[in-house]
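Quick one: Crotonobetainyl-CoA:carnitine CoA-transferase CaiB from Paracidovorax wautersii, structure tokens please.
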Amino acid sequence: MNPGASAPLPLAGLRVLDLSRVLAGPMCAMALADLGADVIKVEHPERGDDTRDWGVRIGTRNTSYFNSANRNKRSITLDLQGEAGLAVACRLAAQSDVVIENFKPGGADRLGLGYAELSAANPRLVYCSISGYARTTAEAQRPGYDLVVQGEAGIMAMNGEEGQGPLKFGVAAVDMFTGMYAGQAILAALYERQRTGRGRHVQMALYDCGVMITSYYGMEALLRASDPPKFGNAHPAIVPYGVFDAADGPIVMTVGNNGQFVRLCRDVLGQPEWAYDERFSTNTARSAHRAELLPLVRQALQAFSRRELLARLEKAQIPCGEVLGMHEALTSERTGAAGLLHRYEDTESGPQSVLAPPYMMDGQRLPVRRQPPHLGEHTDEILRELQGLENAAAAPRP
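--- reply ---
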């Protein structure tokens, strides 16, 4: 395929009304936008999305936080507490395929933007509600916050080193996972709509998705009937696996099977006898004797520079890599070659960058079609389109 050709957009022609704010809902809507949907983001006329005030300022009303979750969208400002703004939102919903909202439970219904009312006017509508807790539980009315759920779902209990207190993820992982799970459910509902002609009410909760993040750690906790030990950068079941120091800096090394361990000892470290020590001959044995093995490995690794060590590991076909700072990683040749940064000229703040979509289809990365919008940037454009759609729908058919 011609690398200069436009990437295919599988959701082209789909319209999404994004009534959500902060991160989980906007991340979901951005995933659909990346896949080609026309996403209309509704914002308060004065303050906009809460995240327009979070992070590093870009221009007058955009920020690093807002831009991370709102590429490929259009922004319209509507006062949903007023009759005029609410009427426009309802008209937009009637012309949309998907609505995403994260009002407090019952809030959308009180505004007349709930699933029952909107789907009555538009039976094909796929409507996604994101809340803090499942709507079938006694906590349904509690507001949801990523950090709170990280604590409640046990996520903080598995991060960090043994003996360290609770530790959150570096990013709002619960919000982000909830957004991605919501996107999956919406796509499933849209696929079903092809057969049934009717939409669905997708209901996602931060707490539910937070529990899903515990994954194999959660399964181990259930089997143990207690919290598993914490291993920091190491793996709970594979040894040696994690971050190790060369003479001049850290690397990541993952020895996932016995063959790799033999090559590590023989070809990289020059210690072939370790591979045949019964304490280290299988991964199960290495895991049981990690306290004896790891100091030996760490000491041997520090005899090499990082560059030399990575070359030896790669030659021995042992998975490995550099440990980079975030800015170093984002500006690396690897990131550039993959096309993961999109650079654009912002009308307010000059040259800017935004992360590109992770989706590759038919050999092409799906594009950033629109930079993160300024507050209300597309209000007039969307209102004109809405009027045109309604006039076309009302026109007599020949």
